[in-house]
Amino acid sequence: MKRSAPKISAKEAAVGYLSRRDHAKRELQQKLKQRGYSEQEVSDAVAYCQDYNWLDDARYAAMAVRNGVSKGWGMLRIKQEMKMKGVHDLCIKQALEEAEVDWFEQARAVAQRKFGDTQMDTPKEKARRLRFMQSRGFDFEQIRYALAVEDEY
C-alpha cells in the first residue's frame, strides 16, 4: 500500500525528528522513507541536516555509548544497538575508544547492583547470573571478573 504524500516537507520532518533526539543517518533515512518521502527528498533532507551539523553519526555514537553505560550495558550490547541503527563501524570504534570505560569495572558494578552480596551456591544460580550478564553485553572475561568465577564454563 502506497502512502499518500506527506503534508510537510521532508526537511521539516527531519528537523522535527532531530529536535526530539539525535538520530543516526540511516535511522533518519528509514523514518523519512516510512513517512512516504521519495529517495530524492530523503537524501536532500539528510544533506540539509548534515550541512547544519544537526545530523552527526559520530556525535550520535558518543551519546549512544554514554546512554548504554548509564543503562548498565556492556560493550557488545552497545555495539549491537548502534549497528542496528546503522552507525558506521568506524564511528562505533572511535566512540567506544573515546569513552574510556573500564568494561571490567562496569561489569562488576552491574553484577553488584543486580545480585548484591548473595552467594552463587547452585549451578542453576550461576547459569542464571551468567545469562543475565551476557544479555547485558559483557564478554566472558568481564563476566568472570564481575562474578569472581574461577573455573572455566
Quick overview:
It is built from 9 helices and no strands. By secondary structure, the chain is mainly α.
Low-confidence stretches: none
What is the average of the pLDDT values? 91
Q: Which architecture of the largest domain does the CATH hierarchy give at level 2?
A: Orthogonal Bundle
Assign a percent range to the helix content: 55-70%
The biggest sheet, with number of strands, parallel, antiparallel or mixed sense and barrel status, is: none
Shape: elongated
SS field, number of helical segments: 9
Strand content: under 5%
Radius of gyration: 20 Å
Quaternary class: single chain
CATH third-tier fold name of the largest domain = Arc Repressor Mutant, subunit A
N- and C-termini, Cα separation: 51 Å
Number of strands: 0
**Helix-strand makeup class:** mainly alpha
Task: Look at the structure and give the CATH class of the largest domain.
Answer: Mainly Alpha
